[in-house]
Amino acid sequence: MDLTMDGRKVLPQPGQSLLELVKQLGLDGSTLTERPLAAKIAGEVFTLNYIPVRQKEAEADRQSMRRAMAASNGEIRLLRYADPAGKECYIRTAQFTIFLAMRQLWPEATAKMTCTLGSSVYISVAGAKDFSASTLKARVSELVGQDIPLIRRRVKLQKAIDRFREEGQTDKARLLSWRTVDYFDEYAYGDFADYYYGEMMPSTGYLTVWDILPADGGFVFVYPDDGNPEICAKVPPMPNFFSVFNEGERWGELMECQTVADLNDLTNSGRIRELIRVNEALHEKRFSQVADQVCQRGAKAVLLAGPSSSGKTTSANRLATQLRVHGKKPILMSLDDYYIDRDKIAPGPDGKLDLEHINTIDCALFREDMASLLAGGEVELPTFNFLTGKREWRGKRLRLDNLRPAERDASVRREDLECQMDAVLVDAPCSGLGVMTDKPDLKYRVTDESIESLKAEQKKILDACSSYVKVGGLLVYSTCSILPEENEKQVEEFLLNHPEFKPDEGDAWVPEKLKPRFRNGMLALLPCRDGVEGFFIARMRRVSL
């Protein structure tokens, strides 16, 4: 029977592997991007060491077509690193090689894959005397250079269980004891054997792009970059992400459930209800802590991100409950309702719609609605109809009760607002001489007396509104005047009378071309010099009560 491999016909000989056929057809690329790593046959993934046609031992003159080949009618698709299944084979091969190197260098150590960090994995190491990531990297390089063939073998289940127990891998031994068949497939080299729940590449020599980085308590193994597999992926700092995984480890210890074998034992013993109760209590405590932080920061919006079916809606509802305890009235909004109409979404390279992609969301409308809500406005929220694939408008209107515009006398201090605000903007009444181009009549109406009156009013407003700023908070004073009496001198007098405030000299908000004008937390713009209307801005930070 002829086989078709990536559209190329080939007649396999009995005992010939897929890898040999790949080389025979000239399909074995020189780079990781081009090189086949595994094969898919009838929907299943197979190692390239797989033999599609074998000779029956009992009848040497009769060939036997393997089950998968018969089911696929001889169709074989080669998997490369860009294929998710091909990448998984690469990762499993890397894991086998890493743990083989660990066994050879530190046989008494315990190494455990703890968490993934982007295109890398953090592996913790315990009990390894003089552990060194550079030493491990050198040994992995040696194993890759040896190009060790990775052949899967089948052993008796009890033999595998006994070996894992002898090696101190009791969690694997306990897990295998639940297996219902009497055999176990594994990959082996020398006295080391293990299995990573799937096929591997043909040999260790296929690991051409990788790195090992030192890390506290272990090391980080870096995989190829998804966009360019010929280079290692970048590993950005992920302290929050890493912290969450560490917290998950701690929870596993508290619940006495760190492995699947532990979960099986808890279920079998009837203690699974206790596990559920403790797990729920830990989650509720964490949501309570997050709600505390939200209120302490005075946050107006909380964004929850995650892939589909990751628990965002459930988490949002539980957090909302905790915020109600603080007297808040949270409003839940789902980004699902901001999906663009299905017929307006361009398919990906594979011809399918990637509904996880950010481009499927009407981000502009979402930003517009959020800005309007936070400014105290009212918006009409969309509703996405998943049956029709269209966004609908059903008159669902929303306004935040805790954000309402109000008209008040800013020069009258309110004790209930003292030290409550993260930031206060004083857009002070002024002469308006900076915008005289648009209002030429101002030069006839502004007098020395009106300037003095405005200065007094500005001082009263600054004195009153500055009291609302928290320690560490920001006070911004602005005018559309070009008079120093209303601008620099007003601020200098305020700072002299209010030592609890200091100029905020951070200039990240200032456009690059205007930074030379920014001094002592103040920026003055002049029409004749800066090509804009005349404005003045001063930023002050509260440093004490």
The gist of it:
The protein contains 15 helices and 21 strands.
Description:
Helices cover 33% and strands 21% of the residues. It has 15 helices and 21 strands. The protein has a 5-stranded mixed beta sheet with strand order 2-1-7-3-4, sandwiched between helices. Strands 17, 18, 19, 20 and 21 form a 5-stranded mixed beta sheet that branches. Helix 9 (272-297) crosses helix 10 (312-325). Residues 57-63 have low confidence and may be disordered.
List the helices and strands and how they pair.
Elements: E1 3-5, E2 8-10, H1 18-24, E3 38-41, E4 44-46, E5 53-55, E6 63-65, H2 67-72, E7 75-79, H3 84-105, E8 110-116, E9 120-126, H4 133-146, E10 152-156, H5 157-166, H6 170-176, E11 183-189, E12 192-194, E13 211-215, E14 218-222, H7 239-254, H8 260-269, H9 272-297, H10 312-325, H11 363-374, E15 379-385, E16 390-398, E17 421-427, H12 442-445, H13 448-466, E18 469-479, H14 488-497, E19 501-503, E20 522-525, H15 527-530, E21 535-542
Parallel strand pairs: 1-7, 17-18
Antiparallel strand pairs: 1-2, 3-4, 3-7, 5-6, 8-9, 9-14, 10-11, 11-12, 13-14, 15-16, 18-21, 19-21, 20-21
Helix pairs in contact: 3-4, 5-6, 6-8, 9-10
Key words describing this protein structure:
five-stranded mixed β-sheet; alpha+beta; 15 helices; 545 residues
